Amino acid sequence: MPDPAAPGSSDAWVILPTFNEAENLERIVNAVLQQLRDSDRVVVVDDNSPDGTGEIADRLADSNESVSVLHRPRKEGLGPAYLAGFHVALDAGAQRIVEMDADFSHDPAYLPKLIGAAEHYDLVIGSRYVPGGGVTEWGPVRRFISRGGSSYARVALGLPIRDLTGGFKCFRREVLEKINLDTIQARGYAFQVETTYRAIRAGFRVVEIPIVFRDRAHGTSKMSRSIVAEAMWRVPSMRFRRW
Q1: 2 lies in a domain?
Q2: Are 89 and 172 in contact (CB under 8 A)?
Q3: Along the 243 residues of the chain, how does pLDDT read in single tens digits?
Q4: Beta bridge pairs of residue 212
Q5: C-beta of residue 18 within 8 angstroms of C-beta of residue 57
Q6: Quick one: which of 75, 213, 220, 229 has the most CB atoms within 10 Å?
Q7: Rounded to whole angstroms, how far apart are CA atoms 167 and 126?
Q8: What is the CATH number of the domain that holds 149?
Q9: What is the total count of domains within the chain?
């Protein structure tokens, strides 16, 4: 199995955090690889899933040198999983780092657009709330929470970004090197807000491109009240923290 931290010359790395994604993992990894170049890589970051997701990831890595696996000892939240994956990609020399869900909520077909736009922008956000974007299969409560969370963060932080809570992004490595990843403590929606906020505060060029977000077909959502509560108090505090 390839060492995910081994140096290489690959350009774009896609980080897929997983917890109990056995029903989705093989399909999403294959779909992602179809959209990437031969030199690009996929890193599965598994938080010790009890459903066997980690074992599936190992099998995929054993059969494809473009796939690596980072096993973490326990579930710690989406933010810490992404941070671990970011460090792996940066250590390996990745120039562009993509974060996306492993449940097909983020369509891999958008990857070439996100990665391509990073030729001209430092952070590219796949946005549900710009013209051409949207959400399917969500009920009114989930729509309200998502759109309301983005609006709340936009007002609280004074940012022009429409989709601050979205998790389909492509970073140039310079952004992740600059925004001091080791001081980010947010785990859910607030993690997505904070990375974008720090990028803008640091003077990087940020753009939103439209995507259509689809609800997962298999498995269960990781949304919880604690994630929403974290965003409520952590977002306004970002304005007063030094990083």
Answers
A1: no
A2: no
A3: 445 444 444 589 999 999 999 999 999 999 999 999 999 999 999 999 999 999 999 999 999 999 999 999 999 889 999 999 999 999 999 999 999 999 999 999 999 999 999 999 999 999 999 999 999 977 787 777 777 888 888 998 999 999 999 999 999 999 999 999 999 988 777 899 999 999 999 999 999 999 999 986 655 555 556 655 655 656 666 766 655
A4: 134
A5: yes
A6: 213
A7: 8
A8: 3.90.550.10
A9: 1
